[in-house]
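sry for the spam today, last one i promise. struct tokens for design, 110 residues
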């Protein structure tokens, strides 16, 4: 069964959304040959254009993209990581920054 994977590409100055390549692996060789025969110069250009991808790459082999690896627990369930900011001193830091800015501007603050 073919797999679909997204390979994120570096963003350029003129990109209005993140560029990507669509990777399709484990494709039946007959299907890959049939798709390639449509356009010999760039067989999947029309597919890429319609999907908004920079390119579409088909492979009969299995292709692993390390950036797409998702860590899983012992039951095969994807692990999630939650990061929470420590905002306990946020109000104090804002007040300190405001006082420092006021002193630099020549306005005394309490």
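last one done:
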């Amino acid at each position: 069964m073919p797999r679909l994977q997204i390979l994120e590409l570096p963003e350029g100055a003129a990109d209005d959304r993140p560029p990507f390549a669509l990777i399709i692996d484990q494709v039946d060789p007959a299907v890959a040959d049939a798709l390639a025969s449509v356009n010999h110069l760039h067989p999947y250009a029309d597919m890429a254009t319609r999907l908004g991808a920079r390119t579409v790459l088909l492979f009969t082999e299995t292709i692993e993209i390390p950036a797409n690896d998702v860590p899983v627990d012992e039951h095969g369930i994807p692990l999630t990581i939650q990061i929470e900011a420590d905002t306990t001193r946020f109000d104090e830091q804002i007040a300190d920054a405001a006082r420092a800015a006021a002193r630099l501007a020549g306005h005394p603050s309490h």
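The longest strand covers residues 3-8. ok im logging off now
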